[in-house]
Specification:
By secondary structure, this protein is α+β, with helices and mostly antiparallel strands. Helices cover about 30% and strands about 20% of the residues. The protein has one domain.
């Protein structure tokens, strides 16, 4: 499947998050890379640029959201999780960031 199909139910629009993208590499082995995006278009563009660089056909096995703990920065669009916050609270933090 392509990146849009794989990410359509995973992507969180408007918040910068990391995503694991699984694919079969040119050697026929399962491989994974991590990309950062704030919308489906950004994820697709980044994936397509990477695939051109690697000479890969762009087929994706899966896309999954990566729970991360980031430092506070000056960009209000970035999801901010404080150090020490548990990973299982990641989705709660996203919902609070989105809906207050």
């Amino acid at each position: 499947m392509n990146i849009r199909e794989a990410a359509k139910d995973v992507i969180i629009n408007g918040i910068w998050c990391d995503y694991n993208v699984g694919y079969i590499n040119d050697d026929g082995n399962h491989d994974e890379t991590q990309l950062n995006a704030n919308c489906l278009d950004e994820l697709e563009t980044t994936w397509n640029d990477l695939q051109e660089e690697l000479g890969h056909d762009g087929t994706v096995e899966y896309v999954e959201l990566v729970p991360t703990i980031n430092e506070i920065d000056d960009n209000p669009d970035h999801l901010h999780l404080h150090k020490g916050q548990e990973h299982n609270n990641f989705m709660d933090a996203i919902m609070n960031e989105l809906y207050g």
